[in-house]
């Protein structure tokens, strides 16, 4: 699929572009950086490492009723949840209607139904207006290659916590070279009472931060290992590798993964 054809489909002034190389279709927003990708021979699988890593939230909440996404991209995660998790509803909030058009026209994102809703609007306004609305909240929004500053304030992270139901998990995608990563991480820690885990992604391009609304400060490693094996069989994603990396990069004892600081 040519970039020129996409520009005609979405309008002459759009910065949304699609390209294909070796059987992989990619989405670009205003530059060469890949925002989303789909392997044409396996459209319902997660092609990019960071999208797979964000699904590690299922280690902590394996049966979510509602997943809320801020930032749609090509819709790969939304499509994955819709296809493989029939008991889960997914809502995606995307500010750029042309991104939504591209996701549906070129990346196979289904149209809305009882389990999938795409809301065209500002995630900075949507989250504070929806309390106790979801079990997993995925924040994956970028502007000029960096995290959107308005979606990385202490107040916004507190709103993310309020948007989660009891036991909910926030998953935030950061580019590895995000210049303000330490500042943003500190804000997440403050908003979530230090109940935070870090998962660097395969390939060294992204960091995923998981933050927990409430619950225990420790999780049994044996329980997580059993859960990782079951999730790997179910979704064909490397949950065992996700768990190994979580244990390596975060505090552990002999039997427990510690979530942030024990109080």
Indicate the topology:
Layout: H1 3-10, E1 16-21, E2 24-29, E3 34-39, H2 49-54, E4 66-70, H3 76-84, E5 89-94, H4 97-106, E6 116-120, H5 123-126, E7 134-139, E8 142-143, E9 146-147, H6 154-163, E10 164-175, H7 181-191, E11 196-200, E12 206-212, E13 218-220, H8 221-235, H9 239-249, E14 256-258
Parallel strand pairs: 4-5, 4-7, 5-6, 7-10
Antiparallel strand pairs: 1-2, 2-3, 8-9, 10-12, 11-12, 13-14
Helix pairs in contact: 6-7, 8-9
What does this structure look like?
- By secondary structure, the chain is α/β, with parallel strands linked by helices.
- It has one domain (47-258): Vaccinia Virus protein VP39 (Rossmann fold, 3-Layer(aba) Sandwich).
- It contains nine helices and 14 strands.
- The chain has helices at 3-10, 49-54, 76-84, 97-106, 123-126, 154-163, 181-191, 221-235, 239-249; strands spanning 16-21, 24-29, 34-39, 66-70, 89-94, 116-120, 134-139, 142-143, 146-147, 164-175, 196-200, 206-212, 218-220, 256-258.
- It has a seven-stranded mixed β-sheet, sandwiched between helices. The protein has a three-stranded antiparallel β-sheet with strand order 1-2-3. A two-stranded antiparallel ribbon has the order 8-9.
- The protein is globular, with a radius of gyration of 18 Å.
- It starts with a helix and ends in a 5-residue tail after the last strand.
- The relative contact order is 0.13.
- Residues 1-14 have low confidence and may be disordered.
């Amino acid at each position: 699929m040519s970039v020129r054809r996409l520009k005609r489909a979405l309008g002459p002034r759009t910065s949304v572009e699609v390209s294909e190389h070796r059987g992989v279709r990619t989405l670009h927003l205003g530059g060469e950086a890949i925002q989303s990708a789909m392997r044409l021979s396996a459209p319902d699988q997660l092609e990019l490492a960071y999208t797979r890593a964000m699904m590690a939230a299922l280690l902590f909440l394996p049966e979510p009723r509602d997943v809320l996404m801020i930032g749609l991209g090509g819709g790969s995660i939304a499509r994955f949840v819709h296809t493989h998790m029939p008991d889960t509803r997914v809502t995606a909030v995307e500010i750029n209607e042309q991104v939504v058009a591209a996701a549906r026209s070129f990346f196979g994102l289904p149209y809305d139904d009882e389990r999938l809703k795409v809301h065209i609007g500002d995630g900075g306004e949507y989250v504070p207006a929806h309390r106790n609305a979801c079990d997993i909240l995925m924040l994956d929004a970028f502007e000029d290659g960096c995290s959107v500053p308005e979606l990385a304030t202490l107040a916004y992270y507190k709103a993310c916590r309020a948007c989660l139901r009891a036991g909910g998990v926030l998953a935030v995608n950061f580019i590895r070279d995000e210049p303000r990563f330490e500042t943003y991480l500190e804000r997440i820690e403050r908003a979530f009472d230090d109940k935070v885990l870090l998962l660097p992604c395969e390939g060294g391009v992204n960091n995923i931060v998981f933050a927990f609304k409430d619950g225990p400060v420790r999780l049994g490693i044996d329980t997580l290992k059993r859960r990782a094996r079951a999730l790997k069989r179910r979704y064909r994603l490397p949950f065992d590798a996700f768990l190994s990396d979580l244990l390596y990069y975060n505090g552990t004892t002999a039997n427990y993964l510690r979530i942030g600081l024990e109080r």
